Amino acid sequence: MGQVRAGLLGGVPHAGLAQATLAGLALRLYQLGLDPGAMDAVARWTDRRREYGIRGGPLFCTLAGGPVSAGYVRDMLKRLKARAGLEKRVHPHGLRHTHAAELVREGVPINVIGDQLGHSSLAVTDRYLRDVAPADVIALGKSRTWTEGAR
After folding, report:
1. Average pLDDT, the chain
2. What is the rounded distance in angstroms from the CA atom of residue 41 to the CA atom of residue 33?
């Protein structure tokens, strides 16, 4: 939720710029890579912000330009979950975990994943990924076969 509360610092990114400066949970600035789809969504939202007369402030904001509360985001995700017919709990940090797990499955190096998530060290990223990618451990176990008498 730190990213949502802090929003984008230093203004809204320019069209075509594939990075943003965010304040993470520790309020430490870091660079975040954005894919073209995310950049398109940010560009559409910045256009809408201009239409509403919103200048400056956090990127993720209310229609009046104020910060979005954590409770609002949780409630919004509950509504979207219900509309999508999902059973599993959906929460902001879970989306971050999903992003990290997808990067692992795509073969992205751990140092790049750490930079993307704004982690202060590879040790933090290593601990984080151990919690978000258990499917890889389960898949490894399922892919192995037991051989009688093997050492």
Report:
1. 77
2. 14
